[in-house]
Amino acid sequence: MKSIGLYVNPDREGAVQAAKHAASILFDLGAECCAEPSIAQSLPENIRSRIHVLHAVEFERFADLVIVFGGDGTMLTAARLFSGSDLPLMGVNVGRLGFLAEFNLEELPKALKDVLSGDYRIVDRTLLEAQVGGKTIHAFNEIVFEKKESSRLITTHIAHQQYLIASYRADGVIIATPTGSTAYSLSCGGPIITPSSSVLCITPISPHSLTMRPLIIPDTLELTVKVDAPDGEARMVADGQIELSITKQDQVLIRRSSTQVKIVKHADSTFFDLLRNKLLWSVDPSAFEQSTDEKH
Fold first, then answer.
1. pTM, full prediction
2. 127-259: which CATH architecture?
3. What are phi and psi of 219, to 5 degrees?
4. Catalytic: 72?
5. Catalytic residue among 11, 28, 64, 72
6. DSSP character for 190?
7. First to last CA, the chain
8. What residues of the chain score a pLDDT lower than 70?
9. Which fold does the domain 3-119 belong to in CATH?
């Protein structure tokens, strides 16, 4: 790895500064870097003069890997943007949780050295593809069907081929990838799914019936979705970032995308380490209370 793309969220405080720091380290390690024009212009002259200026869609012809500076939202955007390429994405968290962007600023010098020496691993993550009204939309975490203007419940009909899976009368329904299982779906009572699992999860949002529970299905199933909304329109949202209005006449086809996203991970970490570190998975409450008491 000697050619690195720097994909930066300029609206995230500290992201440009982090990219500047990373570029300086990478140059000292003998690597080359590229960045988008607006980002390159915001860097100091001694850094800017050595940066290859390219639009993000051109990164693939230069870079071996892309470092994403921002938060998990920036990683979602980058995942869709670079999904058609073969570029691995390394997320550097300058946001809050950093579940997708798992590298932190404190470890950046060592992490960059490890990447250039090949001391890392790459995992493949599933994307969803939704087709409706001649449009194709991709999602890394989830596709959500939800009520739009009205506070009244909507009914979301989900089927596989001609067979009805369920009609969910609820505030909405989440169709999540394993990666997205720890996002919106989890907050609505969905299960945590290991990212390598070949499944999808259908999670209702505040269902009218208590019998409506999250459902795990094989990701080989193609789903058709239709929504009945009291005011005639509902909303389809991909990754919380792309929004479309849909009506009763629309039929949405959802399936696993033929493309995947490559994510760079620590060489010696697992998904379960990430759960423990980011979500406090299996943390002993008494140990946490003791640590808090000691601080006081």
1. 0.91
2. Sandwich (2.60)
3. -80, 5
4. yes
5. 72
6. P
7. 46
8. 1, 285-296
9. Rossmann fold (3.40.50)
